[in-house]
């Protein structure tokens, strides 16, 4: 009220005399956001260092985001393995492809891709393979009889123990249950006999089937078991293996390993796009390829290797296949192997029959990249992976090309950048929907630097 103005002025004057000016009046400042962002530098999360490959930009700070599991291993990463999650059409495919192309810029890198998706009769990685002068290894049961591409589960390059473990896995996956002791003994006897007697050539699956149907008495005498009993125990096993020899999977694994598969090529692509992804053939095939690579590809030669598996739920969701890959991950880590598993939904694996094995493999993945998911799926993912609340809340709002990255607890939001040189190789007709509008503009310089 006007009558109190002199009193108010007197009070303010007395307060200022005792304590100094109570308020400071500042003139407004006009500036740009580019200049003003320097005021908020403390809000920018620390990066992962400056050694490795460029992924894109950290969204909140605008800094370049650089990631390399081999550079970070032992310091910021306890394991070099990586899990990529997200709905279709949000950028997983373009991230995988540009990551591999950029890693191959280093001379000591080598990559194997299990390409489970495709268009127009070829796998999704076909363009990249062609650009690098690589011929994909196409495994197709419909054309395998007329082709020369075969992987032999009994390849002498695989140890005897590894061969037996692989045979058990193939049978257990196909049967949907574990082998009982008697069937396991029949398989062990047949394999041991074939391994010891077939020395003038590569043993093949037909040799195992023959010995299961007609066990040799000498092989059963050590356990004081009748040969006819062993034949009965192994009959179901023989029928399962016969499927690889004369059934719907024939032609891919029923002969010696193809001579001339270049395991020293910088990029090796197994084209699985002709395999029905919902059939039992896919996990069987992945198990065979995984074990074959374990014994023929991973070597102590100081090369850094990347094993990228699309549709990886085929591996993680089968207890028997997951156990094989769990061993591969533990073994490969000592020899410089980074395993990259790409799946659409975490629920595809954590709620399946192999929940225990899936949890063990997920625990080994110290890097997790999550693209847009629906709110309910994002909350489930956050609980399983231990993501902070803010990250869980932002996942359903992410636009194509942007993902939450969790690198051993360092959580940031990253916009993936694709260079003009990579664009024709990365965006196939089907994958074109994964292109983010933000990738067409303002980050051209950073994108070009990624492959410079």
Automatic annotation (TrEMBL):
InterPro entries: P-loop_NTPase (IPR027417), T4SS_component (IPR051162). Pfam families: AAA_10. Residues 433-452 are annotated as: Disordered. Gene3D superfamilies: 1.10.8.730, P-loop containing nucleotide triphosphate hydrolases. PANTHER family: SLR6007 PROTEIN, UNCHARACTERIZED PROTEIN YJGR-RELATED. This is ATP/GTP-binding protein. It comes from Wenjunlia tyrosinilytica.
